[in-house]
Amino acid sequence: MVTAHELRVGLIEPLTDDSFLLGFAVPPQLRDAFAYRAGQYVTIQTELTPGNLERRSYSICRPPRQAWPDDPDADGLLVIGVKVLPGGRFSEWARDHLRVGDTLTVLTPTGRFTVRDDSPGRSYGALVAGSGITPVMALVGDVLETNPTATFVLHLINRGPDQVMFARHLEQAQRRWPDRLRVVHHWSRTPGPDGTAAGRITDDALVELLRTETADGVSEWFLCGPQPLVVRSQAALAELGIGRRLVHTELFHTG
Ligand SMILES: Cc1cc2nc3c(=O)[nH]c(=O)nc-3n(C[C@H](O)[C@H](O)[C@H](O)COP(=O)(O)OP(=O)(O)OC[C@H]3O[C@@H](n4cnc5c(N)ncnc54)[C@H](O)[C@@H]3O)c2cc1C
Asked: Phi and psi at residue 202, in whole multiples of 5°?
């Protein structure tokens, strides 16, 4: 059962011009309640205007093993990645007003965007856009750390290089697992070095990408991005014969 707790903000750190890490200190007595699986999210409850309780969900970006220190008496740090939307009530408020030491009401983790089959040697794939990278950061770290023969390919769609959340963390992960992590960037607004025109990834290109990776062995997929992208990819993977249980989707926004 999900329960609500007051947590102290223990970390605020920029990721890009319009996104940042937000970490909550989890005291030892709440560690069990806030235990989570990679890919899950928490919900923050705030009164942005008096009398109006609002809720926003954010995926946890750190693998569980990195959240909890070995010392059972020390606080853990549960970290999320927030993208600031123009006019976004919570994200702009958090960027402008939230400070380390403040407290927020946070609901315990939940969600089903998690690994189904963790047997040795599995290949996982993710196709994400923008802030959709957040839960996948936890998944990549968790899978590659805990399953020494697993591989992960990550297709990442952003407007341009300066929009990539976790760029530095991704580079570190690639250095750590050069043979087991492949990151492929797709720019939707920036021409490539060879001058190729960039634009929204076409349906044909999307199907081809999923077909190629699946033929190369990816057997479990994580899709997180705008609804049309997720729906098209889901349909393509169904046609390729990947069972629904092995295609995970997370929609941040349905409008
Ligand atoms: C399960 C789940 C996990 C999520 N994880 C993350 C995460 O890890 N990082 C993150 O930054 N966000 C995440 N979100 C989205 C987040 O909950 C908020 O919806 C988002 O931050 C916008 O809130 P806001 O109050 O700033 O904007 P609002 O004031 O609610 O909305 C401002 C405007 O933006 C539109 N809008 C709302 N959300 C989006 C969106 N995602 N994309 C485009 N337009 C949008 C609204 O329709 C409205 O027009 C997640 C959502 C869900 C359901």
From this structure: -75, 165
CB 94 within 8 A of CB 11: no
pLDDT at 191 over 80: no
Question: Which residue ranges make up each domain of the chain?
Answer: 4-110, 123-250
Give ligand 1 pocket residues (Cβ under 6 A): 41, 56-59, 80-83, 85, 87-91, 131, 134, 250, 252-253, 255
* Homologous superfamily (CATH) for 4-110: Translation factors (2.40.30.10)
What is the per-residue pLDDT for 165?
98
What is the average per-residue pLDDT within 125-151? 97
What is the CA(211)–ligand 1 centre distance, in A? 30
The CATH class for the domain spanning 123-250 reads: alpha beta
Main-chain phi, psi angles of 91, to 5 degrees: -65, -40
